[in-house]
Amino acid sequence: MIHTNSFINNNGNSKQAFDDKGKVNNWNNGTLGNYWSDWTSPDKNQDGIVDIPYNISGSTGSKDYHPLTTKIDIEIDQPQPNQTQTSNQNASHQSTHHQPTTKSQ
């Protein structure tokens, strides 16, 4: 599953993503998709999900059925000066993006 990412001006907006491996990837988790800088409206019910699925370039016909209207902001907590971080497993990731309500396809 590929979801809750921000694709911003990839390839000059001509092809933000490409799916051509014969196996369709899931570009959303059933509730949340990805932010695509070239696909932010319409969102008539203002639930944070674009009303029209985002078409993924390539031969598989993949779509993001829950594209987000706003980009995902990720904050990575850094260790305090007196803490030692021994591996990336100790880093916590927190999304500051609001969670839109669920929308049926």
Give a structural overview:
The chain has 105 residues and is mainly β. The protein has one domain (1-77). Helices cover 0% and strands 13% of the residues. It contains no helices and six strands. The chain has strands at residues 6-7, 35-36, 54-55, 63-64, 74-76, 93-95. The strands form three sheets. It has a two-stranded parallel ribbon. A two-stranded antiparallel sheet has the order 3-4. Strands 5-6 form a two-stranded antiparallel ribbon. A hairpin with a 7-residue loop joins strand 3 and strand 4 (63-64). It is globular and about 50 Å long. Mean pLDDT is 79; it is low at 87-98 and 101-105.
Q: What proportion strand? A: 5-15%
* Number of structurally distinct domains: 1
Q: Estimate the global geometry from the Cα principal axes.
A: globular
What is the strand arrangement across the widest sheet?
1-2
Structural class of the secondary elements?
mainly beta
| Computed CA radius of gyration, to the nearest angstrom | 16 Å
Give the end-to-end Cα distance, rounded to a whole number of Å: 17 Å
Mean pLDDT: 79
The secondary-structure element order is: EEEEEE
Q: Give the helix proportion (percent range).
A: under 10%
